[in-house]
Amino acid sequence: MSADTILNILVATIAAGTPLVYAALGELVTEKSGVLNLGVEGMMLVGAISGFITMAKTGSLFLAVVCGMTAGALMSLVFAILTLYLMANQVASGLALTIFGIGLSAFMGIKYTSVALNGVPELHIPILSDIPILGRLVFSYDILIYLSLLILAGVAWFLYKTRAGTILRAIGESPKSGHALGFSVIGIRYLAVLFGGAMAGIGGVYVAVAYTPMWVEGMVAGRGWVAIALVVFATWRPLRVMVGAYLFGGVTIAQFHIQGLGIEIPSQFLSMLPYLATIAVLVIISRDKNTIRVNSPASLGITYHPENN
Amino acid sequence: MGVKLLFKVEPRPVPLKKMRYLSPLIAAVMMLFSGLIIFSMLGKNPAIAFHAFFIEPVNDFYGLGELIIKASPLMLIGVGLAIGFRANIWNIGAEGQLAMGAVFGGGIALYFNESTSGFVLPAMFIAGAVGGMLWASIPAFLKTRFNANEILVSLMLNYVAILFLSLLIHGPWKDPQGYGFPQSILFSDSALLPVLIEGTRLHAGVIISFAAIGVGWIFLLRSFLGYQLQVSGLAINAASYAGFKYKKMIWIGLLAGGLAAGLAGVSEIAGPIGQLLPSVSPGYGFAAIIVAYVGRLHPGGIFLSSLLMALLYLGGESGQMNLDLPSAVTGIFQGMLLFYLLAADFLINFRFRWKSIPLRQGI
Amino acid sequence: MDIIGLKTNDGTRKRKDTETGAVPRLELRGMTKIYPSVIANDSIDIKVASGEIHAVLGENGAGKSTLMKAIYGIVKPDRGEILWEGEHIDIINPAHARKLGIGMVFQHFSLFETLTVVENIALGMENQNDMEKLSKRITQVSEKYGLPLDPERLVHSLPVGLRQRVEIVRCLIQKPKLLIMDEPTSVLTPQAVWKMFETLRKLSEEGCSILYISHKLYEIKELCHKATIIRDGKVTGYANPADETPSSLARMMIGKELPVCSQDKPDINGQKCLEISRLSKKKADQFGTDLNNISLTINSGEILGIAGISGNGQRELTNAVIGEWLSEKPEDIMICGNPAGNLDPGERRKLGLGFVPEERLGRGVVPGMNLLYNYLLTAHRHNLINWGLILFKKTSDFAKKCITSFDVKCGSIDDQITSLSGGNIQKFITGREILQEPKLLFVSQPTWGVDVGAANVIRQSIIDLRNQGTAVMVVSEDLDELFEICDRLVVIAGGHVSPCLNVEDTTKEEIGLWMNGMFPGGPAESLN
Q1: In sequence order, what are the beta bridge partners of C84?
Q2: Whether residues B189 and B81 fall in one domain
Q3: Is the CB of residue C505 less than 8 Å away from at least one CB of chain A?
Q4: B351 shares a domain with B256
Q5: A232/B349 touch (CB, cutoff 8 Å), yes or no
Q6: Does B117 share its domain with B266?
Q7: Which distant-in-sequence residues (6+ apart) come within 8 Å of C390 by Cβ?
Q8: Contact between chains at A88 and B346 (C-beta distance less than 8 A)
């Protein structure tokens, strides 16, 4: 393999990992507040088609991102009302959201099936992008990739360096104590869930508008679920989410290149790789129960009843 | 104090039992109502669309048969999943377990294609059951041994199973005379389920589903094991306090789903489909999650909700044919049904109170 | 009801009594809070003068905590007025309360275990971002009141007594005018209670009013200037605690004399029912305690009490005995002569172990099930299963017997378990375990949070069981309770178990010292 090929693989890996960075960061913040939203796949799909339609109609990436985020957030709002106001089971509500999202996105996208877009151009930064190797490796991506890194830094800073972030983590650990101190547990969780929805939405937009700019029903293809697994893999830490996302990006890209190497493997086997990798990673990280218990937000997935305190 | 609210939400002193049975009905009605709104938004006459979607498919004998054919895998898998769901074991891999059931059962059918023996069909079902359970045993093993989340593992395995089925049908099991289409040869008669009633396509596979309702009823509501599963789901600490083995519950919960889905897979290929195709299920594995939940994890409820869900499938097809309604509407209906149910369940434990009501002293 | 070397401070009390002419710091008029199934507070009036230590006395479930939460802005009262330094106010939320100068120390702490002391304190204050400055103030304030704290420690690494200290310092740092303390002494040794009273008196002298919530009569007699007594949500009397006797306070609190258990211990030729030898176990996670070389024996016909401040290894010892933690050597734990260290809870029950857990809802009983199904939970071994199917008739007969024999107040066995009060649930659990005729009964916190009447039924039934020859092991943080029902006592501290003492040969003071680890072979350094 030439150096150029390796460079291309690395660059493609970053792009393949980016939707996961978005979605998993959103889910991370949601889970840090103590809410488990299994509807990421559904939110990503609806975000994807909303962004796709906007892009197709207006050609504006900015509007596409805004619409995708809004759509994702609206989806998560349904989940938030169910679980936070109506106190429904979080697992069941998340599954319902995914099933609903799959149907809704397919419905919205009927007229757009197999329509292709131009994709998102890579930024060309004068001088920097022209540096050999480094320029290609660091300064050659589209704007949404840089945005994802910016949001990553923002989330890390927010969670560990601000009072509001400390409150969010505290609520996720003990909503009861938070309530006793006068924090609005439900209000904070609404915001965290909405942020998760918006991030899933933009992750979906990236898949449909930038990564493979063509609408295919169900094109998120399990990335939402991988994102949830990534949060576990990252033991609820933002930087590790990024590492995990790019690792998965690498596995996804690897399947194309293995075929390129002339090895005779049925394509279906290669397509299984990301899913099998997810399972492998989950097993590795979960096998020590203590790691999970110590790192996961203590109230994760448990419905909070303010009246009972 | 100060602020006057129109109404107030408060917990009921005692959960309203009646509401547990009422809320699926409320959910169904709300779903139908939302359906009317969606139909009008699509520019269809709601009354005509409603008729095409919910009445037309079942207004004759043949249609009723189709309804039961569609409901059959849903109720079978629904009961299987309910066993796990009662213990909070979230098997969402039924779609993959169904596919593996079809692969195993279909393998038998293809291998014994020349045979006219009466044992082919039973062997297919046994193989399908084994296939579904094997696939479900992966999340069970990984959960009990490595504590890996069964939701994510079983979900991921759906993709793997469907890719595996696709691999076989694009490769070794492809019909050589199939003009390059990805499909197996048609099964011989000995590998096909007999039709029960002339004039319909109602096949013998539905007997298994009805039996599952009966067996599930006894198991879940009368047996001590069913009780243990329920305790594990409601209060895991109480289960371990009582000495129930959670790992056993995990295995039972997942294997029950795998068994049911595997049987359903064979029923599909040996019944309405008659061969192996890349897609042997229009999402029955996921729809069955809704069926189980809307049916209150109770076999009787699952029976009814599987009929409702089957109607949504038929309505989707009929609406597409007659009114050019997109078939994706079915998915939206399914999702909404579960949303409304979850929302209506709020009324089991809470009530809205308008103004204040005279007080009652005492506990 | 003896008092542990405490001296009354009549001087202070008289001085405060003469201040009646001034505007009260806090006045409540007609405070009412109604929940769907119960009136928690019914027209309650209270006046608290500045610098006054005012007791709110009432038994578990009387409505004390609800009233305090209303003052702190967590609970919105349905009717009633709050006057703060003579002015009508609505206290909107805890931040508002803190701004007025109200601080609250919760019974179940409002702390976050994975955060540090300083982060926890910052979260209970408004706009605190400079952690270094705050750390310095924490050190200053905590030393001034004799409550030293390390601001950088993670809360989960602190023993319970120190966690309470975090809550107290969090209030003191905001220079409160009114401090609410909800059952603060339940996590302290007698010596630590005495130290805390000193701090509270000092605060009172500085002019801070204190609302002191308790159901312990001697504490109130000792500390408080005034008392308001609440029963079933209503005020049943106001008193000067100094002028009252424990029994007069008890009559106001529960409407009758405090019930006492009858003992009548028969002479039983004891056999070893539980023998733990040299059991050691590493903690499961950072929140736990290591068990260190624990040995103890319980014979039939006796009650062994395990005293200690919570979080000193009680949970781990309990799990080791009942089988939620397995040991490698089966001989570590012998139940009725059988090696049981490697047996799971179900198998240990077969050997004759019964267990009443500390956590009732969610462990002792299943919320969401009725009494019948909850009876089945552990009693199924009583031949209630045939061919894998539940024998409903037989189960129902047993459940009914449990309800009548143990005075469980409920409508029928079809009632949801959650519709019962805490005391009735505990009677039901205890009854269910006793009806299975265990040879060894392990009871954890038998009457924690239970009303006086139910507590008496439970204690008496434990004593009766002992008299029939069962060995009973009781883990409790309530020293009065242990001294009332136990034959022998051991203390657990830092995962070590003390030598065994006969109850007649020891005092609460000695046990109090031992609770700090100061016993022969105990952990060397003090835990408080």
Answers
A1: C26, C87
A2: yes
A3: no
A4: no
A5: no
A6: yes
A7: B222, B223, B224, B227, C376, C380, C384
A8: yes
CB A201 within 8 A of CB A50: yes
Q: What is the largest CA-CA distance in chain A?
A: 65
In terms of domains, do B72 and B146 share one?
A: yes
Local structure of residue C443 (DSSP, 8 states): E
Best of A177, A292, A296, A309 to disrupt the C interface (most C CBs within 10 Å) is: A177
Residue with tokens 């995914």: A98
DSSP B275: S
CA distance C90 to C97: 10
CA-to-CA distance for C150 and A110, rounded, in angstroms? 63
Please determine, for the modelled complex, whether the ipTM score is greater than 0.90. yes
Q: Are residues B221 and B269 in the same domain?
A: yes
Q: How far is CA A220 from CA A63, A136, A169, in A?
A: 20, 27, 30
What's the rounded Cα separation, in Å, for the pair A239 and A263? 35
Residue with tokens 């004399």: C257
Best residue in A216, A248, A268 to probe B by mutation, most B CBs within 10 Å? A268
CA distance A160 to A163: 8
Cα distance from B238 to chain C (closest Cα, Å)?
A: 4
Residue type, C44: I
Decide: residue C204, CB within 10 A, 0-12 exposed, 13-18 middle, 19+ buried. Answer: buried
Q: Calculate how close chain A gets to B129, using CA atoms only, in Å.
A: 23
Measured between CB atoms, does C37 come within 8 Å of chain A?
no
pTM of the model: 0.91
**CA gap A144, A152 in Å, rounded:** 12
Amino acid identity for residue A231 in this structure: V
B268 found inside a domain: yes
- Residue B309 near residue A73 (C-beta atoms within 8 A): no
- List chain C pLDDT tens, one digit each, 528 residues: 333 333 344 434 444 444 455 789 999 999 999 887 788 999 999 999 999 999 999 988 888 989 999 999 998 899 999 999 999 999 999 999 999 999 999 888 889 998 999 999 999 988 777 888 999 999 999 888 888 899 999 998 888 888 999 999 999 999 999 999 998 888 888 888 998 999 999 999 999 999 999 888 888 999 999 999 999 999 999 999 989 888 888 888 888 888 888 877 777 677 899 999 999 988 877 778 899 999 999 999 999 999 998 889 999 999 999 998 888 889 999 999 999 999 999 999 999 999 999 999 999 999 989 999 999 999 998 889 999 999 999 999 999 999 999 999 988 899 999 888 889 999 999 999 999 999 999 999 999 888 888 999 999 999 999 999 999 999 998 898 999 999 999 999 989 999 999 999 999 999 999 998 888 888 854 444
Cα Rg for chain C, rounded, in angstroms?
24
Which residues on chain B are in Cβ contact (under 8 Å) with A82?
Answer: 339, 342-343
Q: How far apart are the CA of C355 and the nearest CA of chain B, in angstroms?
A: 8
For residue B351, the cross-strand partners are B10
Residue with tokens 């104090």: B1
Q: Are C288 and C315 in contact (CB under 8 A)?
A: yes
Q: How many CB atoms lie within 10 A of CB B11?
A: 16
- Tell me if B157 is assigned to some domain: yes
The 10 Å Cβ neighbour count of residue C20 is 10
Q: Burial of C262 by CB count in 10 Å (0-12 exposed, 13-18 middle, 19+ buried)?
A: exposed
Task: Give the closest residue to B191 by CA, choosing from B276, B96, B67, B68.
Answer: B276
Name the token pair of A182. 């006068």
**Pairing outcome for strands C501-502 and C496-497:** unpaired
Q: Does a structural domain hold residue B320?
A: no
Tokens standing for residue A110: 């009927």
Tokens 């022998």 appear where?
A: C488
For helices B246-268 and B94-111, give the axis angle rounded to 10 degrees.
Answer: 50
Structural domains in chain C plus CATH codes: 10-101+176-254 (3.40.50.300), 272-361+439-515 (3.40.50.300)
